[in-house]
Amino acid sequence: MLRVLLLTLSVVAIADAELCKPDAQNAFKVRLSIKTALGDNAYTWDANEEYLFKAVMAFAMRKYSRKSTTQISNVLLCNVTDRVSFWFVVTDSSKNGTTVPGSEVEAAIRMNWNRINSAFLLSDKTLQFLKITSTLSPPVEPSTPVWLIVFGVVLCLIVAAIVFLVVAGIQQRKKKNKESSERENLEEKGEVTVTVENGIPCEVLDLKAGHVNGVFAADDERFTSL
């Protein structure tokens, strides 16, 4: 019985080795830069970390296919190096001796990329699936719509222009009132001043002293008797 069990395990190991090997069909190479990402807090890659990777990949496949057929045992790792790189495949539990198409594995990875990175405290640059280019993160959308920002700027400019016109009008009116008040004061004092009528400066008569015409003054001296 023991021999049969050992023989069965050997056959399974050989079959797994044929499925998971460098550049095998539907196989993916993974490279992790743990020390680069975490520095002094870097953890050691060991059998427990390999088990976590298998569990995360099984989760990604189940999440993508919405089926519970993928198990941790369906994820095979091989050619693990000390610099933390390895190859892996996902076997198809419904078909013995076959692997899940690479397109499905890639789609599952893309769908759960952030979850995979988070599990190992890494990023797209420090946890790389060499055959899969990292997806660009969606552009950050501002919390306030762009059209609302533009509308606010235009509204502020309009309000500023209205305030400027109102202030300028008030200052101009004050200036006119001041000039009118000064003119009235000068007229009350009887002082001669110059006003502008239709753009032509005109002399205002001194109301108290009057204004003597030189021609008539000469006639008065000639005809007036002593």
UniProtKB/TrEMBL annotation:
Main location: membrane
Keywords: Cell membrane, Glycoprotein, Membrane, Phosphoprotein, Signal, Transmembrane, Transmembrane helix
GO annotation, biological process: positive regulation of amino acid transport
Sequence intervals crossing the membrane: 146-170
Gene Ontology CC terms: extracellular exosome; plasma membrane
InterPro entries named among the record's database cross-references: Collectrin, Collectrin_dom
Domain Collectrin-like residues, every copy: 24-226
Leader sequence segment: 1-17
Subcellular location: Cell membrane
Topology relative to the membrane: Single-pass type I membrane protein
Pfam families: Collectrin
Name this protein carries in UniProt: TMM27 protein
Record organism: Rynchops niger
Gene that encodes the chain: Tmem27
